[in-house]
Amino acid sequence: MSLERIIEFGAWIVMAIALIYYVPKEKFRDSILIFFFKQLLTWFSGILVVQWNLIVYPVRLFASAVNTSFTFEFFVYPGICVLFNLYFPEHRSLLRKAIHYVIYTSGITVFEVVLENYTNLIKYIHWSWYWTWITLFLTFMASRYFYRWFRGDFTRQAVPVAEHPRTRR
User: Which spans are transmembrane here (predicted)?
Assistant: First the structure.
């Protein structure tokens, strides 16, 4: 078995265990929503960067079906995004929130750069690590805002009918 296949197999196992272990049962529905939303973003952006010859994935699962990395674009990144959102420091300082973004984004970027330099899982053509960092940051931000919107964080508290000024008698 090649190094690339070992890494892909390991990524599936580690991510599956992390999701099973770290996603609370009461947040299972939320995790599915986040996972699918991140998949939507990575599917679209992954296909674009491959079609525009910015990145190539020489070794990948389902090589005849898709030119992007199925393992990372469709499972690992969305799984990490679930953990990013479920463990986001919601009621902490702006600095702590920014650090949360930087840690997740930088961690994935460093991992991808290592893969790019030492394996055939990914090869940059007209791409660089900072584009990875920027796109990850933006997709984490998009998933965060989508999740907050879905939870209703952006809606104002409804005024009960009995207390509404127009309904008083």
Answer: 6-23, 35-55, 61-86, 98-115, 127-147
